[in-house]
Write a structure and sequence with these properties.
Cofactor: pyridoxal 5'-phosphate
CATH superfamily of the largest domain: Type I PLP-dependent aspartate aminotransferase-like (Major domain)
Strand content: 15-25%
Number of strands: 11
CATH topology of the largest domain: Aspartate Aminotransferase, domain 2
Mean pLDDT: 97
Largest sheet: 7 strands, mixed
Helix content: 40-55%
Strand order of the largest sheet: 1-7-6-5-4-2-3
Distance between the termini: 52 Å
Number of helices: 10
Keywords: Aminotransferase, Transferase
Pfam family, one: Aminotran_1_2
Structural class: alpha/beta
GO molecular function: pyridoxal phosphate binding; transaminase activity
Radius of gyration: 19 Å
CATH architecture of the largest domain: 3-Layer(aba) Sandwich
Number of domains: 2
Bound molecules: pyridoxal-5'-phosphate
């Protein structure tokens, strides 16, 4: 399995130089426990973000600081999270932003963990891995991946992290004594999933077709689409409190997530997931189309 991850990291992410890989019981447990493994005191995370970055900092009793994308403005910290493509916004980091984050990490000796679990689901932008930009020097760099998204294996709990060999050796030492091993049948499923990319292409096309079906209907009802360049979500707003938008959709029997779940900067947006079945998406579309704006 480790060999499969290694090969995939080179071929798909463009990883170079010395790096190691570590299987995870889904990537969420790693996001939650990393600050504890590293005994981090100060953790940076994106101001609109998947909540577990902050939860992990809280579990480690670290100070957590939400930050913007520009790493040249980040305060000194011992762990910094980047998420590209972003959940919930679908924003894709630029090359310049990732390079700035790498130089921040090198300057401050900060562990830079890049959560890339939606990497293969580009829409109108093609996301790329932080590991393709390190020029083979992966010191203090970690890229986090998940087969929950890539291969729709959420129920299997199958993720992995790739990066700095010394850091991964240190983390592995703690994890193996804490019982965080991936079960053998899951390891075999991971090998099978990583050795095929056709299913990923098919799933990407499916998500993007759902995105293209829902987007005009949301716009017709006054929503503005922001970011949403990749990933499994549409991030949109009617410049009203997110709960008002959620209520409006709920009255049509459509479930969306209030952006406030991802930080106060998201309080006027909603996240519409493209993970429902095609039949459900079509039903939502029919309800939107039958409703007056
Ligand atoms: C940004 C991000 N990271 C990590 C995860 C965790 O995924 P899993 O634990 O299924 O690998 C999620 C799940 O929604 C996510 O959105």
């Amino acid at each position: 399995m480790r060999e499969s991850i290694h090969t995939w990291a080179k071929n798909t992410l463009g990883a170079t130089g010395d790096f190691d890989v570590l299987p995870l019981i889904g990537s969420k447990e790693f996001v939650a426990w990393l600050p504890t493994f590293l005994e981090s005191r100060k953790v940076l995370f994106p101001e609109i973000a998947y909540p577990t970055y902050n939860v992990g900092a809280m579990m480690a009793k670290a100070i957590s600081i939400p930050v913007d994308f520009d790493a040249s403005q980040w305060p000194v910290a011992d762990l910094a999270w980047v998420n590209t493509p972003s959940n919930p916004t679908g924003r894709v980091h630029t090359r310049a932003e990732l390079l700035e984050a790498i130089s921040y990490s090198r300057k401050n000796k900060t562990v830079l963990a890049c959560d890339e679990c939606y990497l293969e689901f580009g829409y109108d932008k093609t996301p790329f891995s932080i590991l393709s930009l390190t020029e083979g020097n992966n010191q203090n760099i970690l890229a986090v991946h998940s087969l929950s998204k890539r291969s729709s294996l959420a129920g299997y709990r199958a993720g992995f992290v790739i990066g700095d060999s010394d850091l991964i050796a240190k983390i592995r030492e703690v994890r193996k004594h804490a019982g965080m091993m991936v079960a053998l049948p899951i390891q075999l499923a991971m090998i099978a999933a990583l050795s095929d990319s056709t299913h990923v292409q098919e799933q990407r096309d499916r998500y993007n077709a759902r995105r293209e079906a829902l987007t005009p209907a949301l716009i017709r009802h006054g929503f503005r689409i922001d970011e949403s360049h990749a990933g499994l979500y549409i991030w949109c707003t009617r410049d009203e409190d997110s709960w008002e938008s959620v209520d409006w959709l709920a009255n049509l029997g459509i479930l969306a997530t209030p952006g406030s779940f991802y930080g106060s900067s998201g309080a006027k947006h909603i996240r519409v997931a493209l993970t429902a079945t095609d039949a459900q998406i079509n039903q939502a579309l029919a309800r939107l189309n039958q409703t007056a704006s």
